[in-house]
Amino acid sequence: MSQKTGHVIGDTKSTTVEAITSEPFSVGEYVTIESKQGAMLGMVEESTVHSMLLSDVPTFSDAAKLVELSHTNTRDKKFTSRISVVGAMDIIGRGRSEIPATPPVPGDVVTSAGAGDLGPVFAPEHGSWARIGTLLRNGDIPVKINLDKVASRHVGILAMTGMGKSNTVALLTREIVARNGTVVIFDYHDDYTTLGIKRTNILDAKVNPRTLGPDEFADMLDFRANADKQRGILERALTSNVRKDGDFWTALVEAIREIGETERNNKAASLRVIEKVNTAKRRLGGMLDPEISDPMSLIKVGHANILSTSEFGERQANAALSYYMREILDDRKDATVSRRHGKASRSRFATPVFVVIEEAHAFVPKGHDTGAKYWASRIAREGRKFGVGLCIVSQRPRGIDIDILSQMGSFAAMRMIQADDQRQVEAAAESAGQALVGQLSTLNVGEAVITGQWTGLDAIVKVDEVREKAAGADQSAVSEWASDLKKRRTGIERSGDMIQKDLLLKK
Amino acid sequence: MTFSHISDMHLGQTQYGSPEREDDMYDAFRQAIDISIKDHVEFVILAGDLFDKPKPEGRAIVTLGNELLRLREAGIPAYFVLGEHDISRVSATPVPYIYHNLGVARYIGDGTPVRNGKTLIAGFDKMRRDEVQSRAGDFERVQRIAQEHSGPSILVMHQGIMEVNEIIGELAVNDLPRSFSYYAMGHIHDRYERYFEHLGGTLAYPGSTEAGSTEIIRETGKGFFQVDASGGQVSTSWTRLDTRPHRSFSLTYEELRDRAATIASQLAGYPKNPVVKIKVSGQHLDMNEINALAGPIHDAALYCNIVPEQSVERAEIITERPTKTRDVLVQHTKKSLNDDALSEFAINELLPLLASDKTGEALSCVMENYAKFKSGGAT
Q1: What is the band of B379 on the pLDDT scale with cuts at 50, 70, 90?
Q2: A330 and A425: one domain?
């Protein structure tokens, strides 16, 4: 690798230079530019190979001859790279990137950067930094991320399905839990129940309807967003007396019925509300539990808490998310305020909490407002003050609310083909250069563009695989069918086996 | 051509440990046989659960033998399959085989169809839910035989059908072999009858001949089917047996007090002492008092089951921790005692003594207070 060398040519700027090189450099590769004012670090943004002979070929028959000529003539190929200047090496070594005041001079030598140069930049020796993988183009260089920034400045993890989003989440979770941090993952598709990292706490999202706000409750009951009349009735029926009643469901239905009976124009609507309440009670009995004292108490500090919302419909999961996020934020607020005033706090989470929202395009969507979106945006804005980190995971970045997405201080973006998605990432992650975003469609599984506050420098990274996570969360239908058949065949007891027929006479 | 379809006799069952109930089971079955002989049915089908246990007592074995013998003497063949009560949980020879071997009844539970005159009769012993799928081959075989048969055809099984009862159902109507004119079922203790287009025949449960121990006490008739399959269409008539009356009442505590005597005399009017269930509802129920009130009913009944339904005052759930626990304590005490002065006394004087285990002092405190009250004092 160190054989590759080149020279800065043409007009130079402080931010980008062009270089002619002995061999083609890979895109994303880090290079050092030896300049008079000291070594500078650059990243290859574009790499071009040019052949004089083959650039203007008149006819196909000419081409055959020209190809032969081009092969034998070593001087025919020209390798050029566009390199973006990251900053002066000595300053980067201290964790900052500063664009030099004067540009490199044409003629300056360009070489591949080695471990000695990049190590301190991408892998600082500090407890808050956790390894996430290696540089894609400089494979021997480990890359670390700053967990302090993860927990305070939020993260967006964006990619197409199957490109390693959940592996990245699993990796973050493992590292945070290993440092005694608390992670709460809202797992809508049961992707994480096989996470298997140490100190995992898998639980079903449970909500006490007594503590839900009227809108959250209406969502839980699957009311349409524009069912104003029904929502209104529910809101009025949900009095503090009903909330306190020993038999919550009965009291609620009675209250709704009373509204229907006393107000003629609400009669039909109230019957529908009662029907919805009864349906929800039947369908969500286990999750909507008026007897559970404090669902939050099931979340364990210092654990990876996988909150399964897979049994909920989307609107209900939304209400559940909204409830949990509200509780977490309030709790952390309480803890922080008490600490500031030097008071003992009764909060559940004495230390920062990291919240992961899977399928974020469904819960913090662009266009319309949801309860979960409101609380996600509150956490995005205020989380830093109170120690609640948010992680937004989605395969459809274009469907996520841009205001919330741009609150994310850091991003890991994996393969993404849709131009809309790429544009959204570019818009949200101001730090990511256009060139880097352009790379998104070329990435393979497990490769990610890491950008933002959690990394010293933007980088294209091969993310480590979390072994603990059972690979391929997708169920193998074929093998499950087969094993089920086997199980059923072996387990069968036939009643005929219990009947001895030897003494039965033939007639 | 008419035949009798009887099932779930559970001979040998002794409900409430009462010999009368054991005899009731025999008696109900005996009535069914009497009627079948009197009506000259062509044959009798017993659709499983002949006995209550895989190892029945001598009395049950001999009773069934006697009745089958009576049938044979009347020239009426009997066919049977085994229900789960007839099949041991460990491999064993089923007791009912003795009747097959002695020639008083014919066992048809092995899936081999037999002919009675023009009628084809096929049967299967009880299958477990898990094994049903693996029996598809057997079902196809008997279906083919039934399709080729020109006269009436009967399938005898002892299974729960999902369409009838989804909880105890082991298989759906769709799983059954088609083309039988009549599906003589056992297992479900309630009478049921319906024509299924898919099957091309009528599926029927006559219900048990007497109330089984899994049934709740209620007023329901017990009996069996007499089926006429001579024409193209099958027609059934259900015959009710004269079984011991079962009565169930739902009363408040006050109603029980007022009506116990009337109910008792009503019950005494039955030729057989009935089996009775009484649900008593009210607040602060005392079982001793209830039993005392229900004394006459107990006397008039063979067995009386009293189910108290304590109606509780609705509790209140406090979702937020109150800032002052004492306020809540005072509030609830006042609500419960319904007297301000009394609750003051309970909380301020009695509670501290009791909490510190000073029972003696607490007692004298109560006595003192009582003395004050008697002399027209404050509380």
Answers
A1: very low
A2: yes
Beta carbons of B314 and A247 less than 8 Å apart: yes
> Chain A interface, mutation test: which of B53, B90, B319, B335, most A Cβ atoms within 10 Å?
B319
Q: Which of the pair, B118 or B213, is modelled with greater confidence?
A: B118
**Interface residue B100 vs chain A (CB under 8 A):** yes
Residue B350 carries which DSSP code?
A: I
Provide the phi-psi class of B365: left if phi over 0, else alpha when psi is between -120 and 50, else beta: alpha
A491 near B CB under 8 A: yes
Digit-coded pLDDT (tens) for A229-263: 888 888 888 888 888 888 888 888 899 998 888 88
User: What whole-number percentage of chain A has pLDDT above 90?
Assistant: 19
**Phi, psi torsion values for B9, nearest 5 degrees:** -80, -25
Is residue A274 assigned to a domain?
Answer: yes
CA distance B223 to B28: 8
Asked whether residue A236 falls in the same domain as residue A87, the answer is: no
Flag whether residue B338 sits within 8 Å of chain A, measured between CB atoms.
no
Cβ separation A493–B128 shorter than 8 A? yes
pLDDT bracket for residue B8 (50, 70, 90): very high
For tokens 């909500």, the residue is A207
Residue A296, token pair as written in the block = 């939050």
B103 in contact with chain A, both atoms CB, cutoff 8 A: yes
For chain B, list the domains and their CATH numbers. 2-240 (3.60.21.10), 246-310 (3.30.370), 325-374 (no CATH)
Whole-angstrom distance, CA of residue A460 vs CA of residue B275: 82
Look at residue A496 and give its three-state secondary structure: helix
- Judge residue B150's burial from the number of C-beta atoms within 10 Å of its C-beta, 0-12 exposed, 13-18 middle, 19 or more buried: exposed
CB contact under 8 A, A245 and B314: yes
Q: How many residues does chain A have?
A: 507
Say whether both A268 and A412 belong to one domain: no
Measure the CA–CA gap between B264 and B300, rounded to whole angstroms: 6
Does A247 sit within 8 Å of B131, measured CB to CB?
A: no
Interatomic CA distance for residues A427 and B96, integer angstroms: 83
Establish if A160 belongs to a structural domain.
Answer: yes
One domain, residues A172 and A316: yes
Nearest-angstrom CA–CA distance, B276 and B299: 11
Which residue of chain B has the CA closest to A491? Answer: B130
Per the structure, the count of domains in chain A is 3
Look at A504 and B101 and tell me if their CB atoms are within 8 Å: yes
Is B312's pLDDT higher than 80? no
Report, as an integer, the average pLDDT of A400-420: 89
Which residue in B89, B93, B133 is closest to A500 by CB distance? B93
Instruction: Write out chain A residues lying below 8 Å of B128, CB-based.
Output: 492-495
Residue of chain B whose alpha carbon sits nearest to that of A241: B316
Domain membership flag for residue A473: no
| Alpha carbons A405 and A383: distance in angstroms, whole number | 14
The answer to whether A506 faces chain B, any CB pair under 8 Å, is no
Amino acid (1-letter code) at residue B316: E
